[in-house]
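pasting for ref. prot 1 ->
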Amino acid sequence: MNDLPEGPVTSFDSDDSEDAEVRPGPLRRHVVWAVAVTTAGVALGWVGALFRIGPEEFGLPSAAPGALWPYLLAWAAIGLALAAILRSVAAKVPVHEPETAAIGVVMIGTRLSLGWRPEPLEVAGLAAAGLLLVAVWCAVALRGAAVVRRSEEVPRARGTA
């Protein structure tokens, strides 16, 4: 016969259930992390701009002709700022995969910039959209930490009364 377990299965690894963690440490570790994440995002965006699947009318165009260094440098600076924001919040509260957010935003921004070579105002708009995404990512982490902190304080307050 098929026997079903009597209770819910809760044998998850601690790594699976607790992806977010506080990342304290010396400043140089945070700087190296921000530089590495930004470099990965810019490099993946650049490589993505070199390849295209299908004809241009069905997808993103391949890298447009023209100077690419201004766009790479712009997204490197934008990526460093976004990574610094994410890492500063991750040093205080648990943030779920900050490297994924930083690499993703920088990669998409670099890919779009190299595909269409937008004007500086449009690049600033892309950077603002990336900043908004990172701000929401950090706000969710800060809100979650505040809820956990409050839930831990309530039982202590009840125990003393």
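and prot 2 ->
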Amino acid sequence: MSEESVVTTRQVSIRRIDVPDLHDATSVGSIAIDLLAPDPVAYGVESSVSTGLPAPGGGVAFPVGFPVGFGAAGVDGRARFTNDGTAPAPVRFRVSGGLPDGFSLRCVETGDALTFRRPVASDDYVLLDSSDGSALLNGVSPVSGYLTDDDWWQVGPGETCTVQFTSLGGVQGLPLLVLSGSPAYF
């Protein structure tokens, strides 16, 4: 797929519009619009993937009978995002509650970590955005002061980031990590 066929979006502001003098004109030749894109990168379609905290599988029950049952599969607590674009792509994390001691997110490939040391109630969530380094409780209240590790990262062009989701202590309910990102293009 060529870059020309990729649908992208940009946030821009209009700086100036030049409209030719229309006095005694029978048609308009052209109109010039100057735009400013604070983020000059274009983004493709957003994708999201979710995971719960790591949990062991069922394993083999003894005494072993035939056929052998291996139990339910475990959960590795990992979410992956691949940037198919040509520019580094920021990622966003939404961690839902039930984490009385907080949580950690670690990029397995680089070792960069985000560690949030504050209770997250079962009906709360924390939004973390690597594009601006923000941390918001329930999407509105700034809580970046509770990040004890804030090694923000972006995913390079053609690279994959595997995020390990870990609780810093006890767990209540079923905490969930949703990892979102869009391929980025120069």
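The two ends are 16 Å apart (CA to CA).
The mean pLDDT is 88.
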